[in-house]
Amino acid sequence: MAGEDSAGDESDVGLYDADIAPERQRELLTDGEIPVAVYGLGKMGLPLAGVYAETTGNVTGVDIDPDVVDRINDGESHVIGEPGLDDLVAEQVDAGQLEATTDGPEAAANARIHVIIVPTLLDDDDDPNLATVESVVDDIAAGLAPGDLVIAESTLPPTSCRDVIQPHLEQESGLDGDEFGLAFCPERTSSGRALEDIRGAYPKVVGGIDSESTRAAAVVYDELSSNEVHPVSDATTAEAVKVFEGVYRDVNIGLANELGRLADELGISVREAIGTANDLPMCQLHDPGPGVGGHCIPFYPHFLLSQAEEPMDLTRTARRLNDEMPAVTVGRLERELEATGDDLADASVVVLGITYRPGVEETRASPAIGVIDALQEAGADVAGVDPLVDPADYGARAVDIDDLTAESFDAAVVVTPHAEFESIPWADLEPMVVVDGRDAVDLSGTPHRRYTLGGTADGRPPRDDGGADAIAADERSLTADGGTDERLTETGGTLENPGADDV
Ligand SMILES: NC(=O)C1=CN([C@@H]2O[C@H](COP(=O)(O)OP(=O)(O)OC[C@H]3O[C@@H](n4cnc5c(N)ncnc54)[C@H](O)[C@@H]3O)[C@@H](O)[C@H]2O)C=CC1
Ligand SMILES: CC(=O)N[C@@H]1[C@@H](OP(=O)(O)OP(=O)(O)OC[C@H]2O[C@@H](n3ccc(=O)[nH]c3=O)[C@H](O)[C@@H]2O)O[C@H](C(=O)O)[C@@H](O)[C@@H]1O
Predict the structure, then answer these.
(1) How far apart, in whole angstroms, are the C-alpha atoms of residue 421 and residue 318?
(2) Exposed site from 85, 101, 171, 453, fewest CB < 10 Å?
(3) Where in the sequence does UniProt note compositional bias of the Basic and acidic residues kind (predicted)?
(4) Is the confidence at residue 474, as pLDDT, over 90?
(5) What secondary structure does DSSP assign to 383-403, as a single string?
(6) Cα 43 to middle of ligand 1, angstroms
(7) ipTM above 0.90, yes or no
(8) pLDDT higher than threshold 60 for residue 493
């Protein structure tokens, strides 16, 4: 019988198809009798391994980065900005309940539950790249035994468990598909609150390649999470749940960004209007901003767009709109500088915030990268400030936050408002144009010309002068020299209808 050794006793038991009473399965799991391997010890994997360790007492983490492994074995967390993680890692390693290794196959041979939480990225053609996942699957297959349970937590294109991972495991391990369990159990977790989320902020979705896989995964997460376990029909449904959550967010943000662009011509704060519309439970518009970053939300729509036969125009358009926001943000800066008689090509601009979200050391698809590129393309001199990463690695001259008062910039663009930016002495900085992408800065009482993308939550339009004057100045400056705004012609737009191609 799968799940038990030949003697039929409980030693070296697996959960899948185990001929053991469910209550006893839970006891074996929480007594550390069912060893767990977690593959990927990054921003999500290390917190997950820590919660598995505190629940089961018997976890081996696997990572290809020897520095990551060494630090964990020294009881340290390399992940920053996760409340409680430093202590959890130290405690679990000290208790001998968590260890780390770079040897995936060895960990697989000693584990009975295998958890995949490595990146699922895109290639240059925006097609999903599962190479990392498949390399972990190879490691698992090398040690897979009858009765084992494989759990994928990395977000995957729907059908991946059924069409990629299961066949791969069968082929590489020599086992039949009905000898081991496979389930997709998505990470509903945000950086900065990972432990809180993993321990049970939301129901845990589990979807197995067969009903026994779903059952076994539900046993695991019933113990791991304080929230309910939500079994769904199969692994593909669970994969779709996770991707749909991300697509919903990307489309919603795309709508918020499209509405936010109306603020100038309406002379209102769209943020105030959105905040008020959201009084209604049936209306939950997201926030306008300079773009959508991270290796999740900008990526997940492509997990469908790359494989769907349906056109998916709405998802595709929203993705394009969000990708355009860094250029739109720089276009607004260009217009504000023109209104003050300055030319972006001759301007010195400081970009505040390079990572994709405050407090998170992740720059994949960060809007700041698009902003820096657009500024450089326009000929501006570009500096950058970020407490977590080096702006020089992203094409901007690195400036320390404490040195801002020693410099003189024509403009600043607030892309990602790290908490450290609250200490910026705006009143002491040389007067400049400040484009605030996140409605994060209060410039009242300072000499700066403010432009808040989408307006401010407290009801002020993007510009203090209400906007009409600046657009009028814009039209005057553009028609005075008879010139046309090449940016507008690029998009086929006109001043009356900038960005006509965007529609
Ligand atoms: N970051 C987030 O907010 C969330 C991420 N996810 C999912 O979790 C996945 C992982 O995300 P993060 O932990 O943020 O990524 P990360 O980039 O912070 O960490 C990935 C870790 O995996 C390791 N790794 C790479 N290849 C490996 C291999 N072959 N074997 C073992 N380890 C390997 C890397 O060395 C790194 O330590 C994401 O791609 C996504 O699908 C899900 C929910 C939230
Ligand atoms: C549906 C959902 O809320 N997913 C969350 C999301 O977290 P993630 O860390 O990617 O950050 P995020 O808050 O979605 O922001 C992504 C990007 O979008 C931008 N953003 C976000 C919300 C908004 O209203 N406007 C906006 O412009 C952010 O600035 C950021 O650049 O993606 C995670 C994931 O799936 O990996 C997921 O676990 C998280 O719960």
Answers:
(1) 30
(2) 171
(3) 473-489
(4) no
(5) EEE-SSS-GGGGTSEE--GGG
(6) 7
(7) yes
(8) no
Cα-atom radius of gyration of the chain, to the nearest Å? 26
Ligand 2 center from residue 242 Cα (angstroms): 13
């950058």: which residue's tokens? 384
Q: Is the CB of 260 under 6 A from ligand 2?
A: no
**What is the atom index within ligand 2 of the atom nearest the CA of 294?**
10
Q: 259-266 long-range contacts, Cβ below 8 Å, gap at least 24? A: 259/285, 259/288, 259/454, 260/288, 260/289, 260/453, 260/454, 260/455, 261/288, 261/328, 261/454, 261/499, 263/454, 263/455, 263/461, 263/462, 263/467, 264/461, 264/462, 264/463, 264/467, 264/471, 265/467, 265/471
Residue pair 184/238 in contact (Cβ under 8 Å)? The answer is: yes
Please name which ligand lies nearest the alpha carbon of 322. Answer: 2
Task: Let me know if 296 is a catalytic residue.
Answer: yes
The alpha helices in 267-426, defined as continuous H runs, are 270-277, 300-305, 313-339, 367-378
- Quick one: pLDDT band at residue 476, thresholds 50, 70, 90? low
Report the pLDDT value the prediction gives residue 499, as an integer from 0 to 100: 38
**C-alpha pair distances (Å), 421 with each of 101, 307, 375, 395, 402:** 38, 41, 21, 20, 10
* In contact, 267 and 241? CB cutoff 8 Å: no
Determine the pLDDT at residue 12: 77
DSSP state of 200: I
DSSP state of 503: -
Q: Is the dihedral of CA 302, 454, 266, 462 positive or negative?
A: negative
Residue closest by Cα to atom 21 of ligand 1: 42
Q: Mind listing the domains of the chain with CATH numbers?
A: 4-233 (3.40.50.720), 244-317 (1.10.1040.10), 324-475 (3.40.50.720)
Instruction: In whole angstroms, give the CA distance from residue 386 to residue 424.
Output: 12
CB 55 within 8 Å of CB 95: no
Specify whether the CB–CB gap between 54 and 43 falls below 8 A: no
Ligand 1 interacting residues, C-beta cut-off 6 A: 39-45, 62-65, 68, 104, 117-120, 132, 135-136, 154-155, 187, 189-191, 295-296
Which residues, in sequence order, are CB contacts of 295 under 8 Å at separation 6+? 119, 121, 362, 364, 365
Block residue for tokens 């925006």 = 126
Q: Which amino acid is at 196?
A: E
Average pLDDT, the chain: 92
CA distance 320 to 417: 24
Q: How far apart are CA 351 and CA 385, in angstroms?
A: 6
Place of tokens 């358009």: 317
